[in-house]
């Protein structure tokens, strides 16, 4: 399989494998579309491709684009049945090489320029921004997208997935946290100077561009997308700013972040499975131009209880980016994984415990990195524990983590306003605290006489006995094990 | 009659008969449903006091059982002219 180049190729690929369903009857943008996507997420069902939207002829929705590992595999051009370790290995292989620069194409070759609204024609309500959840603070136009900005001094391009809510026909507010790339650029540069920050929002990105926008990688997203795709991503100049946007995106919003205006944003159903972050005066975007493809497809991610992209893809990319970081420091890790059910709050690290304090070193690196604010628990297990098997991890956590030696709390760190366990004050100021669960046997224990022996089929029986039992399992009268 | 909605933390933010400044969103059907404006207004717990209706949500989106009537006096511009 070849990696789909844009949302439309991705939808076609998902329809062919049964990983998307075509919904032909009219769907209301006001709650109904969101409810369909939410239910599909909770059932781990195919993505809904909604072809008729009330009030919006000519537009379509594609929901829950990457909320299953099957669709993640398809987005990478892999077989849908690829296992998670296989998908992770492929992500690492593609993103450990040399960055691939994007290419700039002429606007005539950019589908996102098929329709252009400027001046008094600009009205965000001409786009089918859904009310994703009943009780949300507004219609969220940006739930699966990239907010594109450029650092004014360093020139770094950032594609970040900062949720965006319609305030009025030309104004959006968004959750941009101070520790994020855009938050840093705003607080370091634009806001103190009172300068506008040009932005573009790209909706209906290729799935790999969306994957890159979610990944907390040090590689700029255009290069990262190109590395994931194995070829340069095509960009085109904006109409009103000097930013460059994916030429094959479905919808582009161009404008400026106003340094002297903040309007209310939220509440919103979030990836933690709650509405947590308070309704606040947040970063405010003024839209000056809209461009979009004919029959544009708006992508919708509906965050809530697992499993949706918020947990699955962020868990995937946070884990793999931490794995890269820990390997770059020479740590003998066997892998890093976040189970989606943890709503990317618990990082599980497997390591060969070769020296004292290795779990603390891992936790300090994890919490001290730019990834750190997005999770508050690190569980370190040994190389005999399968980090992808929650039963094994849970057993290790409950039996090997000493309540005194094994649990270390890191106080007064950076958190997110989305943490359900944080106090209202901590949420307001992005304050956090984090904890390590060290599930390694101490290195000063005699490995023969002090370390307990794991009693399991695969650990205590001789191989010839295991092979015999496995070979005879069905003849004993048991059904086949799948 | 127009239908509006406001987010508050406490119903005490909506005293009857006082000059208030609120951020309200329209619930009228159509493509502009849920868009906001900042307004000077008066509200009342008596539904027949003013022509328009106002419903209330709390901080996490919970809908209040209490309904109000509202009179929008004027819109308060929030976006400076240089951005219009």
Helical amount of chain B: under 10%
Radius of gyration of chain A: 24 Å
Can you write the helix and strand succession of chain B as a string? EEEEE
Main sheet of chain A, how many strands, which sense, barrel?
9 strands, antiparallel
Which residues of chain A form runs of ≥5 with pLDDT under 50?
none
What characteristic shape of chain B results from the CA principal axes?
A: globular
Overall number of strands of chain A = 21
Q: Superfamily at the CATH H level of the largest domain in chain A?
A: Electron Transport, Fmn-binding Protein, Chain A
- Could you give the count of β-strands of chain B? 5
Number of helices of chain B: 0
Most extensive chain contact?
Answer: A-B, 31 and 21 residues
Helix content of chain A: 25-40%
Residue share in β-strands of chain A: 15-25%
The coarse overall form of chain A would be globular
List keywords for this structure.
heterodimer, A: 482 residues, alpha+beta, Pnp Oxidase, Chain A, UbiD C-terminal domain-like, nine-stranded antiparallel β-sheet, five-stranded mixed β-sheet, 27% helix, 25% strand, B: 84 residues, mainly beta, five-stranded mixed beta barrel, 5 strands, 0% helix
């Amino acid at each position: 399989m070849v990696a789909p180049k844009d949302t439309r190729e991705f939808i076609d690929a998902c329809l062919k494998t049964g990983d998307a369903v075509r919904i032909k009857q009219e769907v209301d943008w006001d709650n109904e579309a969101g409810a369909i996507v939410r239910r599909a997420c909770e059932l781990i069902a195919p993505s809904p491709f909604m072809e008729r939207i009330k009030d919006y002829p000519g537009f379509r929705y594609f929901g829950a684009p990457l909320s299953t590992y099957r669709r993640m595999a398809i987005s990478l051009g892999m077989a849908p049945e690829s296992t998670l370790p296989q998908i992770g290995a492929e992500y690492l292989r593609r993103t450990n090489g040399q960055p691939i620069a994007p290419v700039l194409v002429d606007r005539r070759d950019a589908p996102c320029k098929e329709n252009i609204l400027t001046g008094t024609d600009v009205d965000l309500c001409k786009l089918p921004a859904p009310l994703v959840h009943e009780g949300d603070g507004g219609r969220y136009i940006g739930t699966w997208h990239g907010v594109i900005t450029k650092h004014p001094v360093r020139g770094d391009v950032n594609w970040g997935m900062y949720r965006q809510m319609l305030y009025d026909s030309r104004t959006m507010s968004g959750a941009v946290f101070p520790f994020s790339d855009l938050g840093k650029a705003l607080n370091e540069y634009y806001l103190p100077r009172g300068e506008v920050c040009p932005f573009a929002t790209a909706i209906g990105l290729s799935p790999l561009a969306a994957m890159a926008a979610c990944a907390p990688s040090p590689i700029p997203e255009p290069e990262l997308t190109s590395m994931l795709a194995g070829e340069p991503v095509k960009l085109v100049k904006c109409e009103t700013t000097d930013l460059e946007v994916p030429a094959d995106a479905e919808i582009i919003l161009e404008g400026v972040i106003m340094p002297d205006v903040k309007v209310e944003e939220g509440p919103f159903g979030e990836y933690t499975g709650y509405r947590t972050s308070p309704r606040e005066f947040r970063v405010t975007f003024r839209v000056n131009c809209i461009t979009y493809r004919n029959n544009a497809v708006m992508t919708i991610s509906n965050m809530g209880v697992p499993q949706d992209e918020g947990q699955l893809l962020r868990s995937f990319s946070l884990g793999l980016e931490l794995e890269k970081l820990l390997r770059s420091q020479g740590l003998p890790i066997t892998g890093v994984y976040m189970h989606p059910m943890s709503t990317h709050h618990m990082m599980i690290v497997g390591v060969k415990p070769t020296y004292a304090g290795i779990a603390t070193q891992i936790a300090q690196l994890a919490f001290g990195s730019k990834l750190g604010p997005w999770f508050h628990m690190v569980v370190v297990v040994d190389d005999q524990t399968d980090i992808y098997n929650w039963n094994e991890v849970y057993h290790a956590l409950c039996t090997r983590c000493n309540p005194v030696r094994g649990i270390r709390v890191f106080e007064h760190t950076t958190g997110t306003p989305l943490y359900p366990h944080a106090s209202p004050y901590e949420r307001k100021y992005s304050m956090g605290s984090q904890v390590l669960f060290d599930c390694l046997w101490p290195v000063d224990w005699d490995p023969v006489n002090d370390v307990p022996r794991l009693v399991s089929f695969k650990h205590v029986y001789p191989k010839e006995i295991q092979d015999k039992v496995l070979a005879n399992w069905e003849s004993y009268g048991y059904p086949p094990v799948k | 009659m127009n239908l509006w909605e406001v987010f508050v933390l406490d119903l005490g933010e909506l005293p009857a008969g006082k000059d208030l400044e609120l951020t309200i969103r329209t619930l009228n059907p159509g493509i502009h449903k849920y868009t906001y404006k900042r307004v000077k207004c008066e509200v009342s717990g008596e539904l027949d006091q003013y022509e328009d209706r106002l419903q209330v949500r709390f901080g996490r989106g919970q809908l209040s059982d209490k309904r109000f009537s509202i009179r929008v006096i004027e819109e308060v511009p929030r976006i400076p002219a240089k951005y219009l």
